[in-house]
Amino acid sequence: MIVRIMGEGQVRLDDTRFPELNRLDDELLAEVEGGDEEGFRRTLHALLEAVRKLGTPLPDDSLEPSELILPAPDATVEEVREMLSDDGLIPG
To answer: Average pLDDT of the chain?
Structure first.
C-alpha cells in the first residue's frame, strides 16, 4: 500500500504491518475523542515514525496514487479529527 504523510512524501508499506499501526491508530482516536492533547501529540508522532520505519520511501518524483493519507507531524487535533473515520486514520 502507498501511504502519504502530508508535507513529507510517500512510502510503500506492506499490508502485514497494519496490525502494528492499528494499535497506535486506536490510541490516537481515543486521545482525539478524549481531548488529550499531550497523548495525541505523542501518539501521532509514534504512528508517523512507525510508518517511516516500517515503510520504504518512494522517490520524490514518484507519482504513485496514495491509498492512505496521514496528517503532517504538526497537525492539530482539529485537523486530525476532520480526517478520522469510525476506524481512525487507518482502515481496519
So the answer is: 92
Question: In the predicted model, what is the mean pLDDT of residues 26-51?
Answer: 95
For the record, the C-alpha cell of 79 comes out as 485537523
Give the predicted TM-score (pTM) of the model.
0.91
Residue 22 amino acid letter: N
**For 48, what's the count of Cα atoms within 13 Å in the CB-facing half-sphere?**
21
- Sequence-distant (6+) residues with CB within 8 A of 3 are 10, 11, 12, 13, 51, 55, 66, 67, 68, 69, 70
